[in-house]
Amino acid sequence: MESLMHISEFSSSPELVEKLQKYSVRKSYPAGSVILNENAYIRAIPLVTRGSIKVIRTDEDGREILLYYIKSGESCIMSFLGGLHNETSKVKAEVEEDAEILFLPVDKVSSFIKEYPQWLDYIFRLYHKRFEELLDMVNAIAFKKVDERLLSLLHKKSELTGLRTLQVTHEQLANELGTARVVVSRLLKQLEEEGVVQLGRNRITLM
User: pLDDT tens digit string along 56-65?
Assistant: First the structure.
């Protein structure tokens, strides 16, 4: 309950927090677990209380691109929209760091909107944040070089984990950037030569 009270919109409504705890199912997942696949129906909305999740979009050829991260205290706005309209998911959600998640049934999402203005404020804040993040992603793809996007992604991961050394493969980075592994490997080597990063086996350290 304490972790939910840290969410600004919930701090003024202990009753909402109590109901979230009562009606949600709490589950724990190790990094790499997929909690939602594309084209799956959404029966419950995830609320992350510990760890983080990455939300990915996949094309017909299986290529992926990272849309945004969901951190502790946040949820997936696309799950909200899909669940409320009984539509299948347009994205895949994969655990980035070991995570603890509350799953709130979709029918409770609707009733909470009517009962608690704080819940609606929370949804609107998430929607605004995700919209800005998606705009940033579109701008990056349209106007930034891949090396800039790669370095930005590494800094995002560092900020997310609080670590300078990241346990990540070149293949994972390539998937999240929507590019080829060989491109990422070449750019990482350049960044190492420039003293920006230090490379190890499945490990990258920001200098």
Answer: 988 777 778 8
CATH of the domain at 169: 1.10.10.10
Round to whole Å and give the CA distance between 161 and 50.
Answer: 11
Domain extent at residue 181 = 144-206
**Residue of 122, 111, 113 lying closest to 4 (CA atoms):** 122
**pTM value > 0.70:** yes
